[in-house]
C-alpha cells in the first residue's frame, strides 16, 4: 500500500488552521509509539542543555511534529528541518511563522547529498532510513555535519517483523519502503563504517507495541486505502481503540525488549 497519498490527505485536513495543526501534532504524539520512544531519548539528551544555544538537524522532517516538540523545549536551540517534499516544507515554514517560533527553519534537501560540516549538536532521523537506498552515504553526511561529540538519534523498522514483514515471501506493508527493516548488527556496522565512534541500539515495538501499531496505524491505513469515506468513521474508530493504544504504548516504552519490530539507535561522533 502507498502511504504518501494518505499522508497528503491528512496534511491537507489539518493544515487549515494553526489550531488544527497543533491538535494533529498532539494526536500523533499520543498515537505513534515511535514518538514515545524518541521523546524519551530526546528528554535524556536535553537534560541540562535547554539554556545552551545548540544547533539541531531534523533529517527527514515529514509533518514537522518532532521539530515542533523540540522547539518547545528551548527557544535557544536553532532547528533546521529538511525534507525532499517542497510542498510539505513550504507548509511547515508558513505554520512555524504563524505561531512565532523563529528558531526553526525548514528547507528542501536530499539527505543523500546534503552535508553541512561540523554544524549540529544533534541530528534526528525518525522513520526515514527505510525510505533511502543509499543509507551509508546519508550516515556519512550526517556524521560530517555533526560537531565533535554530537549525537544522531534514529528510529527505524527492524528485521524482526518491521514494515509488517514476517516471512521471506512477504513484502513491506508500506510500498515506499526500500528495505523491510534493519538487522540490529547491520545498522551498527553501517554507522561505524560511516565514522561514528560509539553506537547503541535497542529494540522497540515489542508485543504491546505491535498490537498498538495494528490498532492505531495498520487497520486505519487499510481502511483509508479502500475509500476516503472512512475519514468519516475514523473518529468513532479511535474513540473505541484510543485508550487501549495509550496503555499499550505506555507498556512498550517502559519495557526492555529482547526483540521488536522497531529499532532505536544512538550514534556519537
TrEMBL record:
Residues 54-158 form the Methyltransferase domain. CDD domains: AdoMet_MTases. It comes from the Bacteria. The keyword Nucleus does not apply. Pfam families: Methyltransf_31. GO terms for molecular function: methyltransferase activity. GO terms for biological process: methylation. InterPro entries: Methyltranfer_dom (IPR025714), SAM-dependent_MTases_sf (IPR029063). The chain crosses the membrane at residues 229-251. Keywords: Membrane, Methyltransferase, Transferase, Transmembrane, Transmembrane helix. PANTHER family: TRANS-ACONITATE 2-METHYLTRANSFERASE-RELATED (PTHR43861). This is Class I SAM-dependent methyltransferase. It comes from Hymenobacter armeniacus.
Amino acid at each position: 500500500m502507498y502511504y504518501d497519498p494518505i499522508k497528503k490527505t491528512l496534511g491537507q485536513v489539518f493544515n487549515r488552521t494553526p489550531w488544527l495543526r497543533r491538535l494533529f501534532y498532539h494526536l500523533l504524539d499520543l498515537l505513534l509509539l515511535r514518538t514515545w520512544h524518541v521523546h524519551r531519548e530526546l528528554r535524556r539528551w536535553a537534560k541540562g542543555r535547554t539554556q545552551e544555544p545548540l544547533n539541531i538537524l531534523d533529517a527527514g522532517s515529514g509533518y514537522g511534529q518532532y521539530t515542533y516538540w523540540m522547539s518547545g523545549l528551548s527557544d535557544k536551540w536553532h532547528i533546521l528541518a529538511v525534507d525532499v517534499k517542497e510542498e510539505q516544507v513550504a507548509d511547515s515554514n508558513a505554520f512555524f511563522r504563524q505561531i512565532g517560533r523563529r528558531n526553526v527553519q525548514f528547507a528542501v534537501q536530499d539527505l543523500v547529498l546534503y552535508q553541512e560540516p561540523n554544524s549540529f549538536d544533534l541530528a534526528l532521523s525518525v522513520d526515514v532510513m527505510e525510505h533511502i537506498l543509499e543509507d551509508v552515504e546519508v550516515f556519512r553526511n550526517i556524521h560530517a555535519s555533526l560537531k565533535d561529540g554530537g549525537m544522531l538519534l534514529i528510529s527505524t523498522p527492524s528485521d524482526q517483523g518491521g514494515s509488517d514483514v514476517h516471512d521471506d515471501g512477504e513484502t513491506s506493508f508500506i510500498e515506499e519502503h526500500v528495505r523491510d527493516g534493519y538487522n540490529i548488527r547491520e545498522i551498527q556496522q553501517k554507522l561505524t563504517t560511516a565514522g561514528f565512534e560509539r553506537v547503541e541500539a535497542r529494540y522497540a515495538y515489542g508485543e504491546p507495541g505491535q498490537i498498538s501499531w495494528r490498532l492505531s496505524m495498520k487497520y486505519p491505513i487499510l481502511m483509508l486505502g479502500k475509500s476516503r469515506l472512512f475519514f468519516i468513521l475514523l473518529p468513532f474508530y479511535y474513540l473505541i481503540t484510543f485508550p487501549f493504544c495509550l496503555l499499550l504504548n505506555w507498556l512498550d516504552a517502559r519495557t526492555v525488549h529482547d526483540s521488536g519490530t522497531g529499532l532505536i539507535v544512538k550514534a556519537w561522533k
